[in-house]
Amino acid sequence: MAIQFIAGDVVVTAASMTGPNLHQALPLSGVVESVTPGAPPTAVTVAWGDGTRTLYPVVGSGATSVLLRRNTISTNMLLNRVVQPNAASGIPNPSGRLSGAVAQQFDLEDPNGTSVQTVVVVETPIGVLVTAEANVEVIPSA
Amino acid sequence: MAAIAAGSIVIPSGALGVVETAPRPPMCGVCASAVPPAGPGLAPTNVVVAWEDGTTVSYAESASVLTQLLPPTTPSLLGSRATYNAAAMTVIPAPGGRAVGPVILHSGFTDAAGNSPVTDFVTVRTPLGFLGLPLSITQVVPG
Fold this sequence. Notes:
By secondary structure, chain A is an all-beta fold. Chain A is 0% helix and 44% strand. The termini of chain A are far apart.
């Protein structure tokens, strides 16, 4: 059963989860400080990891989500493994520049608690790649 | 294309300055809410954007300040080394390879009202900063 955002949830911005263009910093995490229950919830206040705090009057759901809950995964943990985009992903990888170590990996849910996908955050030589776990493969020798 | 609405992925139009090198790449945001345009070809108003750094900003007028990101319309150059093409180099100097670097962003885009330009744009991470280039004046450099 889907559980909507509640205080204490760890969240990331949906904007930091866009891909496959490269970000230049690891995604910022925050904790939901307060929320008005609803479907979807509203008036979500997040205390971010950099010490700032933001009130989101509207957080949306599904394709309009601006915040996503991050949950730890229990299987297929790739943290610290070196990975590369696989052939099926359609993500180019010229000269291996989009290969790198997995810095973060988590399941994402929208504000209604609907599962979105499992993502990996890969530190590449030219930026941070955020993509679905299904889009990467482990480099065997690493 | 449609005008910016809830769920649209946007970047600041100010980050699209071409030729000059910027200190940081465009930041992504997602539109949380917007008042629909008053008519065709017009931009939405009161656009609230949730940026990837956790901040939110409300834009009373979005026409000249926000740009929508779309998938690239040509094969992505992400990760390729790129710089100005030969035609552009007749007017833009690129001494010492300082305008060369890997592509970290390649996107199609529209303005806030949903009007599409005729070319994609790329952002190149150079030794001096982040270079925004229309795809029409971009070339891939071997290596």
